[in-house]
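Here is one chain, start to finish.
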Amino acid sequence: MDKSYKVNVNKSSEFEFNSKQIEELNVVKEGNSRYHILNNTHAVKGELISKDFDSKSYTIAVNSNTYQIKISTPLDKLIKELGFSMGNSKKLNDIKAPMPGIIIGMEVKEGDEVIEGDTLLILEAMKMENAITSPKDARVKSIQVKVGDTVEKNKLLIELE
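Its structure:
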């Protein structure tokens, strides 16, 4: 299944991209947060100014113009439609299931050091594989599930410290 992303720019324009389109971009990292991007024959210089991983909000500069970017996926839309909220639980050390599903992959073990954005586990829900990621730099304190477990919404999956 091809993953799609909706990108809102400056709260005024919205674009939709799929995984294939993103993979076709030619991106060369030029520094800590500087990139050279080639799309077909169009080249731009980009810089990541700031990021808020929890809200998927970014400030970028492209060819000296600054843009506020908000990215959303079909999972974000589904969570909002179902009335769930991931934002508040991400501030805590407890990683809970955002929806019912089956654990199909475990990417960490107790004691592992993780950084913000690292995949902790894969939850299959409604025929979609969802990577549950670390909301912050932390150490895995305990893992409460194993591959093959069926979990309900808000089930404690992993504790961080």
